[in-house]
Amino acid sequence: MNQTELQSISPYQAFQAVAMRVGRVVRVALHERAKKPAYKLWIDFGPELGTKTSSAQIVANYKPEDLQDRLVVCATNLGTRNIAGFTSEVPTMGMDDEKVNVVLLQPAKEVPLGSRIY
User: Fold this and answer.
1) Residues 41, 35: contact at Cβ < 8 Å?
2) C-alpha–C-alpha distance, residues 83 and 55, integer Å
3) Which helix (H) or strand (E) holds 75?
4) Residues 113, 56, 32, 59: is their CA dihedral positive or negative?
5) Structural domain count of the chain
């Protein structure tokens, strides 16, 4: 969207434009070619979306075994990016801790895979 198009929609419409969904990490590998320490994640979003990939700079706060089978929140409609030779299809959502390392967003309890955040 260009600046004019962004100004013509409400903040709520802008929020709704980003499809954030819940998925489960089914595979984790160190992203050895990334400039900053990162993991390659394979995330299952259920039958509607299937498994998508994500490169996530979360090494400082998480070990691979901490991530396996963990529910995460991802933006699923922002397109793909090539990150150091790895196709990242969904950004994994998080926020900075006091040391500016990423802490992942996750549901407080078990929810169906592919659930939309609203």
Assistant:
1) no
2) 7
3) strand 71-75
4) negative
5) 1
Q: What tens digit of pLDDT does each residue of 44-98 get?
A: 999 999 999 999 999 999 999 999 999 999 999 999 999 999 999 999 999 999 9
Euclidean distance between CA atoms 67 and 86, whole angstroms: 19
Q: What is the DSSP letter of 107?
A: -
- 114 domain-assigned: no
Alpha carbons within 13 angstroms on the beta-carbon side of residue 99 total 7
Give residue-wise pLDDT tens across range 12-22: 888 778 899 99
Alpha helices (H) along the chain: 3-7, 11-17, 64-67
* Domain with 64 in it: 19-104
